[in-house]
Amino acid sequence: xxxxxxxxxxxxxxxxxxxxxxxxxxxxxxxxxxxxxxxxxxxxxxxxxxxxxxxxxxxxxxxxxxxxxxxxxxxxxxxxxxxxxxxxxxxxxxxxxxxxxxxxxxxxxxxxxxxxxxxxxxxxxxxxxxxxxxxxxxxxxxxxxxxxxxxxxxxxxxxxxxxxxxxxxxxxxxxxxxxxxxxxxxxxxxxxxxxxxxxxxxxxxxxxxxxxxxxxxxxxxxxxxxxxxxxxxxxxxxxxxxxxxxxxxxxxxxxxxxxxxxxxxxxxxxxxxxxxxxxxxxxxxxxxxxxxxxxxxxxxxxxxxxxxxxxxxxxxxxxxxxxxxxxxxxxxxxxxxxxxxxxxxxxxxxxxxxxxxxxxxxxxxxxxxxxxxxxxxxxxxxxxxxxxxxxxxxxxxxxxxxxxxxxxxxxxxxxxxxxxxxxxxxxxxxxxxxxxxxxxxxxxxxxxxxxxxxxxxxxxxxxxxxxxxxxxxxxxxxxxxxxxx
Amino acid sequence: xxxxxxxxxxxxxxxxxxxxxxxxxxxxxxxxxxxxxxxxxxxxxxxxxxxxxxxxxxxxxxxxxxxxxxxxxxxxxxxxxxxxxxxxxxxxxxxxxxxxxxxxxxxxxxxxxxxxxxxxxxxxxxxxxxxxxxxxxxxxxxxxxxxxxxxxxxxxxxxxxxxxxxxxxxxxxxxxxxxxxxxxxxxxxxxxxxxxxxxxxxxxxxxxxxxxxxxxxxxxxxxxxxxxxxxxxxxxxxxxxxxxxxxxxxxxxxxxxxxxxxxxxxxxxxxxxxxxxxxxxxxxxxxxxxxxxxxxxxxxxxxxxxxxxxxxxxxxxxxxxxxxxxxxxxxxxxxxxxxxxxxxxxxxxxxxxxxxxxxxxxxxxxxxxxxxxxxxxxxxxxxxxxxxxxxxxxxxxxxxxxxxxxxxxxxxxxxxxxxxxxxxxxxxxxxxxxxxxxxxxxxxxxxxxxxxxxxxxxxxxxxxxxxxxxxxxxxxxxxxxxxxx
Lengths: 485, 485
What we know:
2 copies of one chain form a homodimer. The first copy, chain A, is an alpha/beta fold. Helix content of chain A is about 30%, strand content about 20%.
C-alpha cells in the first residue's frame, strides 16, 4: 500500500484544509487474507434463513418483491442487475420508448438486497446445484478485454428458487445465432436499433446499388407470436411516421416482412387474428407463410427454396429450456423444463422451488403445462413469495426444516386474457380464459388504450411509470428519436 | 428478383385483401447498373450550389443550422448522425441524465438534410481532400462482423467547410488508448457507466480480496480541466447520493482521485479555483498533483514512481489535431491545426473554410490562437453560416465564383465567460473576458442554478430541453438510475 502514502504526500497542501481525506484514506489500510474461492456458508442460528433466487426475470423479481425480509435474507444471482419489462421491449427498438424505461433495477424492486447486511445481489451465473449439501455454484460475469477473470464462488441456501427463464428456440436452424437478433433483453433492442439506423444511413450512401438498397432496408421478422407482431407493428409505425419524414431519400425502399410457419397470433380469438392480419397488411407489413430452412449473412432460405434477402433479421419463434436447465440433475417435466409439483416444489429434493418459463408441472400432477408467459411467471412468483413467508413464520425457513409445515393451498393459474399491440394506435385484447373458451374480444383504438393503460400501471416503479408516460407523450408530439448512439 | 415473385405467392390469400402490397412489391423491380465508386458530381446550373460540411460537432452543426437552404444544398459527412451536447456528457455517466438527451440528431438541427432532394447526410469519414478539383474522398462507416465492406465515394463541393474537431491528447504516454476511457462521445459515457456499475457489482462478489475491492472501486480521473472536474463532481454526487443507498455493502470502498499536473481549472479566476478545490475535497474527491508516466491494465505509474491502482480510468487532458487533420495538405496554424484567415477561409486554396477545434489562425493574421471550446466553435459556425449565405446571395455560391464578393466583417471572438459544475449543487461562473481580465466571478448554489439554466436553454431542440428538465427533476425525486443495460 505504499502508493497510498505517496498519494497523501501529493495533496496540494496549500488548498486542502479538510481532514476528511485522512479518514477516507485510512480505509485503504484494511486488508484481509485472500479468499479466492470463498462464498457464503450455511446460515448460523443468529442469522436469518437465506432464500437464494437464481434469475431476475418476471418470476424471480415478483418473488423477491413479496418476500418478507424480516424473516429471510435474500440473495439473487443473475447475469443482469435489472428486470426487463418485456412487453414494452419492442417499442424501444424504434425509439418510441427509452431503453431505460423498460429496465427496472432489482435494488428498486427489493431494496433489502442492497441494504441488509445478509442480502446480496451477485452479478453471476449459476453453474451447478448441489442439492444434497444445499449449495449453489456460481461464476461471476465479466466482459471485455480488460475485465478481470471470472470468480468462482458458492452460496449455501436454506431455500432455493430456480427462476432462470428460457432461451429462444432456433429449431436447430443453421445461422440463426450468427445472423439473427432475438428480442428478449435490452441489449437485443439496442442492437436492433443500431442496425436499423446504420442500414438506413448506409442505403443513402452514393453508389449503393438499387438491389443492395432494397436488401439493407428489408426488415424480416420470423415468428408471428405477440412479440413478432408487436415489433412489426412498431416498425411500420416508425416507417410511416418517422422514416418518411427523416429519411425521405430512402423511404420507398424500406419494407417489413413477417414470416410465420402457421398462423400469426395463434393463441388469439379467430376474429382478432383476422383483424390483426388486415391491419398489419394495411400498414405495409407483408405477411408470408413459410418455414425457414437456413439463415445466411444476407439472406434466408425457406423450405421451398425461396431466397429472402434481408438487412435486419429479428427471430422470435418462442422459447425452450436453456443449457443450464437441461444440465441440472433434477426431476424434469415433459419438454425438458424443471419438474414441479402443485406447490411449485421440485420433487425428490429438499427446499428447491422453481417458477417461470424454466419450470413445468411433473406428469404425476396431471396438470396441463402452462404457457411461457410473463403472466404465469408473475403469478407463480407472487404465490411462492406468500408460501415462503408462511413457511418462515411456521419456523420452516431453515434448510431441511419444512417437512412438517402445512403448505396450504396449491398454486392455481387463472388466465386473465392476452393483449398485443399491432401498431397504428391499435391493439387486440382477448379476455377468454383459454383457446376454446368464450369471452370478450376487443380490437382497435379502445383496445390500444386499454393496452397502454394496463402496461402503464404495471411498469413497476413510479419512476418508470412516469417515464413511460412522458416517452409516449413526447413521441406523439415530437416523433421518435433517431440519433444513433 | 425471383424471390419476390415467390414471396407474393406465399401471402395467405384468405386473409389479405388489400391490394396495397402489390404497389409496394413493384418497387422492388427497379434496378440500375452497379456504381460502386460513384458519388456526387459537380453541381449543374439547374441545381443549387452545394456546401459540404465535414463533421457534426458544435461548429459544423451550428453552421448547418444557419445555412439558408433556399440558396444551398447541404451535404454533411460525419461518422455520427448526431451532435453531442458535450457540457452535459459527464452527467450521463452516472445516470443523472439519459444518454439520448445529450445527443441531437442532425436531421433535427437542419431538416433539409433529410428532405431536400440535393441535401444528404452521409455516415462516413473523409479520407482526403482534392482542393484543385473541389472533391472530397469519403469512406462509409461500418461496424461489426456482419457489416458490409466500407464504400468509397467522392463528393464534389462548391464550398467546403472542415469542422472535424480534435482528438484527445495522450502526450505519447503508453497504455492510454488501451486502458483509459475518454469523455468526448456518447459511447464513451456509456462505456464509463457500464464499467462503473460492473466494478460496483464485481466488488460485492464473495471472496474478492480487500485490496482488489479497493482497486475496482478506485475511480481515477486524469486532467483537471472543466471536463475532469465536472466528471469528478458528478461521480462524488453519485457516490454520496446513490452508492451509499444502493450499494451499501461496498460504499466505504469507493473513492475518486483527480490527478492534474498543474492546477485544476487553470483558466478560472484564482478564487474560483480555491473554492472548487475546497468543495471537491469536502465531497471526498482526492486531488493529487502528479504527472502520469505509464498506464497499465490495473494501475498507473506517476513520474516519481508512485503506483496508483485503479478500476476506472478517465482521461481528459485536452485535445490536439487528429490524424486526418495532420495528413491534409493545407496551410497549417501553429500547433498543427488547419490555418485560417480572419474570415475563417483556408488561404492559398479556393472555397475551403475551417471552423472549430481543428482550425487556428495562420501566423500572418497576428491573432492569438483561440481555445478549443464549444463556445468558440459555435460562434465560428454561426459567423460562417451568415457569411456563406451572404456569398450565395451575391452569386458567389458556385465553385471558384466568390473571388469578387465582398466578405464584409472579419470574425471576432468575444469570450462570454466560463462555467463548470463541481457537484453538490455547486458550480463556478467566471465572466471575465480573459485570464488576466477583471470581471464577475461566482461560486456556489446560485452559480449552479445559472449553470443549469444556461444549459437548459442551450440544449438545442425543445424535445431535449424538455427531457433534460424531466431528467433533472426525476433524479432529484427518485435518485439516479442504476440498471446496467
